[in-house]
Predict the structure.
Amino acid sequence: MSRRNKFFRKADFLVILVILLIIVISFFVKDKNSSQVEVWKNGEIAMVIKQAGEYELREGDNHLMDIYFDGKTVFVKNSSCSLKICEKTGKVGPGGVIICVPNRVLIKFSGKMPKADVITW
């Protein structure tokens, strides 16, 4: 048999191996900022949440809200505002925002935001 009749050559195996290696690495490498949540109060960062858990946001002696972060999504469990719109927003992932106007609180993921096709208000 001649060499031309072989289906794969050594160089073909090397190219396939490099492509598979890039795919595997891309699954394991994450954006470090995508799993962090920023909580803004009055236009300033009040806290940065990096680990899953329940966090309490206070202003002095006043309880404002309980924020729950599960590592992928964030939501408000209990808020002191009257309309509770921040609670009704539900779970929000990267690119989403929770806003509590009466308490002047903004909760969002830090880092790169996903590209949006349409933004509505």
Observations:
- Helices lie at 10-28, 85-88.
